[in-house]
Design brief:
Elements (H helix, E strand, L loop, with lengths): L15 E3 L2 E3 L5 E5 L5 H19 L7 E4 L4 H7 L5 H10 L1 E4 L13 H9 L3 E7 L15 E7 L8 E3 L4 H14 L9 E3 L4 H18 L3 E6 L5 H18 L4 E3 H6 L10 E7 H10 L6 E4 L1 H14 L7 E5 L4 E5 L16 H13 L3 H16 L2 E2 L1 H4 L6 E2 L2 H10 L3
Parallel strand pairs: 3-4, 3-5, 5-15, 7-13, 10-12, 10-13, 11-12, 16-17
Antiparallel strand pairs: 1-2, 6-7, 6-14, 8-9, 14-15
Helix pairs in contact: 1-11, 1-12, 1-14, 6-7, 9-10, 11-12, 12-14
The chain binds NADP nicotinamide-adenine-dinucleotide phosphate.
């Protein structure tokens, strides 16, 4: 790192990465983007909770050297650039970063800062753990049965954004090409979108999901696809997923067929059941039999819908964390937006960013601190001391500001 705009904490150390393994020092440097709108409020709260949990869990022997990097409105103000190159360099160099929500610039030539970060850094897996915290209001009867992690492919499928407007030269040429060269008829007045799904993109995503199962002791992985309709994209995703499971994780994995034909339906200890479900059926399954699913691996659009549907089942986006990860690189983020009408009011729920911090702590290999945050958050919600979004749905709850909610969680750390 040679850039002089960054204030690198002198007492922090860099995270290393070799042969697929991170090496994390006692005081790792972790860049943060505080975010726009409500970003500063929720970041202050999240940082306080994360620092408190690390301090208590390791009796002061571990800590995080936070380093601010700029993106969004603050970067535009201070550097005249929505996403300065040094910000991208810092994430690449220091490997793990956390960010609040960012405003999507209107008419600035950038589709979205989040998408730009993912594409530049090739953060190919969008990971969303979804679980319920007891007491959080939910629209379903038994939200506690949901404990799933979604691995959503982040670089292709409709996300590649390859499209031509109806009536444009590109759309006309493609329609002609399809008719003349490939014998496929498409209505003349169609817009055209291309949905690429590659062996590379699919296999690395499923590989990451399976490695997660191995590392975290999860025993069930479901490939979600729409292969009955789109055989060579969605269907191929499923086939390539099974190939990775058999060829690279054969000693850990069992197929559904093996489970019933050879094992009498009993999964041996230490094994991972790999199965697949068609996307529409999967939406029924998450409502009807959520306890039967642990880790989902899927293409981009399916994953987009599933992530939000599952988040709604456990109480909404205010409590849903996420990360975008590549090989040895990860950006942890709040999944909601900047909620500009609440900016600076010290009002909103910092839960999504705090739980993204929990993911960061696990990624660092600090599970004790991660569990401490989850337990303290659970205790605080059980005491019905919550921010406005939860308070308005909970009988007899005490309304707290963002900062007060953070203080209550810190007070509840074991
Ligand atoms: P939003 O910022 O997520 O806010 C929509 C509503 O969701 C809020 O009015 C509020 O609902 C609720 N909400 C969001 N965060 C909350 C929190 N932490 N605690 C409690 N309630 C919360 O969505 P938006 O208004 O559509 O988007 C605003 C900006 O954010 C846009 O520029 C958009 O592009 C950007 N955005 C960024 C990201 C990202 O950086 N990852 C993601 C999505 C959107 P009530 O008013 O009903 O209480």
């Amino acid at each position: 790192m040679t850039n002089h705009n960054l204030k690198v904490p002198a007492d922090g150390q860099e995270i290393g990465y070799e042969n697929g393994v991170l090496s994390v020092p006692e005081r790792p440097i972790v860049p943060f983007i505080e975010g726009d709108g409500i970003g500063p409020d929720i970041w202050r709260a999240a940082r306080r909770v994360l620092d408190g949990a690390v301090d208590r869990s390791y009796a002061g022997s571990r800590s995080i050297a936070w380093m601010e990097i700029l993106a969004g409105e603050k970067a535009k103000r201070e550097r005249d650039d929505w996403l300065p190159p040094e910000t991208v360099d810092a994430v690449r160099h220091f490997r793990g970063a956390i960010k609040g929500p960012l405003t999507t610039p209107v008419g600035g030539g950038i589709r979205s800062l989040n998408v730009a970060l993912r594409q530049i850094l090739d953060l190919y897996a969008c990971i969303r753990p979804v679980r319920h915290f007891k007491g959080v209001p939910s629209p379903v009867k038994a939200p506690g049965k949901v404990d799933m992690v979604i691995f959503r492919e982040n670089t292709e499928d409709v996300y590649a954004g390859i499209e031509w407007e109806e009536g444009s030269g590109g759309a006309r040429e493609l329609i002609e090409f399809l008719r003349n060269k490939l014998g496929k008829r498409v209505r003349e007045d169609s817009g055209i979108g291309i949905k690429p799904v590659s062996v590379t993109g699919s296999k690395r995503l499923v590989r990451k999901a399976l490695q997660y199962c191995v590392d975290r002791g999860r025993t069930d992985l479901t490939l979600v696809h729409k292969g009955n309709i789109m055989k060579f994209t969605e269907g191929a995703f499923k086939e390539w997923g099974y190939e990775v499971a058999a060829q690279e994780f054969g000693e850990w994995t069992v197929s559904e067929k093996q489970l019933w034909d050879e094992l009498g339906g009993a999964l041996p200890a230490g094994k991972i059941l790999v199965k697949d479900r068609i996307a529409d059926a999967m939406f029924q399954q998450i409502l009807l039999r959520p306890a039967e699913y642990q880790v989902l691996a899927t293409t981009n659009l399916n994953g987009d819908y599933l992530s939000d549907a599952l988040a709604a089942q456990v109480g909404g986006l205010g409590m849903a964390p996420g990360s975008n990860e590549g090989d040895g690189l990860a950006v942890f983020e709040a999944t909601h937006g900047t909620a500009p009408k609440y900016a600076g009011l010290d009002k909103v729920n910092p839960g999504s960013l705090i739980l993204s911090g929990v993911m960061l702590l696990r990624w660092l290999g600090w599970p004790e601190a991660a569990a401490a945050v989850e337990e303290a958050l659970q205790r605080t919600i059980a005491e019905k001391r919550v921010t406005y979004d939860l308070e308005r749905q909970m009988k007899g709850a005490t309304l707290l500001k963002t900062s007060e909610f953070a203080a209550a969680i810190v007070g509840n750390l074991g």
